[in-house]
């Protein structure tokens, strides 16, 4: 079954992982991890992971609602003591196995990177670049990065086994 999740479920997954590994996560880093989860789910499973759209903000792809959820933390790590090991285990049970595999790949490839490194990666990839055509580097934008553009770009890197 390939269901679409709320961005909050995927964000909680990464925040709980942050708690589990004692590896701090900021709003900026969280945005990029959720973006890569969506991107690779589109590329590998050919299905959107979350319904919400990302906008091409100055610091990379952002879901405005997710940004608002954690904006009170500013650039500091997100603190969610409610996302314990037990809650993380239960959360994983609500996510399809094939999606958990994609999230595991995102964790492996990106979780160890700093927020700035993730921002830099997204700034060098077509979905963010092409959505911001005509804008200056520091010009605010709420242009939506289309799921079709995300899927087409990341699908080029998927090796079919």
Q: Can you offer a commentary on this structure?
A:
The chain is mainly alpha-helical. Helix content is 55%, strand content 6%. The model has no long low-confidence stretch (mean pLDDT 96). It has helices spanning 7-21, 27-44, 64-70, 85-93, 97-111, 115-123, 126-131, 147-155; strands at 54-57, 60-62, 144-145. It has a three-stranded antiparallel β-sheet with strand order 2-1-3.
Assembly state of the chains shown: single chain
Main sheet, how many strands, which sense, barrel? 3 strands, antiparallel
Strand order of the largest sheet: 2-1-3
- Would you list the SSEs in sequence order as H and E? HHEEHHHHHEH
Note poorly predicted spans: none
What is the overall pLDDT average?
A: 96
Shape: globular
**Any idea how many domains?**
1
Residue fraction in strands? 5-15%
Distance between the termini: 21 Å
Defining traits:
globular, 8 helices, single chain, 3 strands, 6% strand, mainly alpha, three-stranded antiparallel beta sheet, 161 residues
Task: Provide a compact summary of the structure.
This protein is mainly alpha-helical and 161 residues long. It contains 8 helices and 3 strands, in the order H-H-E-E-H-H-H-H-H-E-H.
List the helices and strands and how they pair.
Layout: H1 7-21, H2 27-44, E1 54-57, E2 60-62, H3 64-70, H4 85-93, H5 97-111, H6 115-123, H7 126-131, E3 144-145, H8 147-155
Antiparallel strand pairs: 1-2, 1-3
